[in-house]
Amino acid sequence: MEANQSYTVRTQLNRSTGINIVQLPQLPNFELPTKATKVSEVLEIVNFRARVSINSLAPSPLPNYLLEDSETDRLMKTLSLEWNSPRKQLNLLLIDGMGNTLLGSISLLNTSGYPFKIYDLKQVYSKADKVFIGNNARLGLQLQDVGYGLLASDDSVDIWCDFIRTISYFIPQIININVAPAQNTVIPNITIQNLIQGGSTTPTPTPTPTPTPPTNDEDDEMPLKLISTDYTAVDRDRILISDSSIIITLPANPAEGTEIEIIGTEEAIINMNGSPFEGQDVQEIKTGNSQAGILHGGGKLIFGKSAYSSELTWFVYPLGTASFRAFESQWAD
């Protein structure tokens, strides 16, 4: 099951911000239905912009383009003006359990003849149309002094960001199987008088057989195993990772067609146990919501032949729901 929520977050950077890191978003807790367990949580950045007004610096001149300038010449002049003029600097960070990662910076100028300038910060994080972060990560904004100070009292940077929050969860289903009890064998009351008078006995009724509960061999009907410590998987396992930093070890010498399903957003390590992954000789891969995770939210690992290799290898078969996505492969060290 999925729940989608939309949020708009606004904040302002000014003189009092200093070099403090401003984290986005700070979202309220999501109330799960009764007995529900959260599987994954993903934030899509729909819109992320900054309205910048810098008045404490001298206005920057316009680029001096010539008619004979090529596109490259014009680009170089623009970049030189943007990064060599008196300016402030805004750094954009990705904050997760591994620390703060600098993804890019923008130069804040006093735009000549214009009271403010609008920056698309989403393009700094990614050029893709859709940008996602996991619930273990936050966006960070930090001002940096590059020789012209931080924001002054007449400077302002207004930030607004629109998010779509998608939470996947499941509610365990309790299935009652009614089994008819076996009938008791009726033992007739036989006396010596009955036998002497040639009396007959009542035949013993045949007990009604106990019905066998129905079986289902479909993979999706296999129960989930809630794993919070290191675990060695077996064929057809469905594993729900409930804690980070655990190691899931795949079966040694797996047979062709072996399947292991991994569900959860916690960052865990999958030990390949001597078998290749997507045709490559790697020792382990990672899971999690960060873009370094191969399994984003969950997916199936299948041992067989694929487009990656004509030899037997493990490969990822992503689940079909919107919250399960496979990111571009990045091998673990």
Mean pLDDT rating = 79
Beta-strand content estimate: 35-45%
Coarse morphology = elongated
Could you tell me the CATH topology label of the largest domain: Jelly Rolls
Q: Which CATH C-level class of the largest domain is it?
A: Mainly Beta
Helix-strand pattern: EEEHEEEHEEEHEEEEEEEEEEE
Uncertain segments: 211-220, 319-333
- Helix/strand class: mainly beta
Number of domains: 2
**Annotation, overall tally of beta strands:** 20
CATH architecture level-2 label of the largest domain = Sandwich
Intertermini distance: 34 Å
Q: Provide a count of the helices.
A: 3
Rg (C-alpha, Å):
32 Å
Percent helix, as a range, is under 10%
Q: Mind describing the biggest β-sheet?
A: 5 strands, antiparallel
Structure report:
The protein has about 325 residues and is mainly beta. It folds into 2 domains: about 170 residues, Jelly Rolls (Sandwich), CATH 2.60.120; about 100 residues. The strands form 5 sheets. Strands 1, 3, 6, 7 and 9 form a 5-stranded antiparallel sheet that branches. Strands 10-12-14-18-19 form a 5-stranded mixed sheet, with no helix packed on it. Strand 4 and strand 5 form a beta hairpin. The longest helix is centred in the N-terminal third of the chain and has 14 residues. The protein starts with a strand and ends in a 7-residue tail after the last strand. About 25% of the residues are buried.
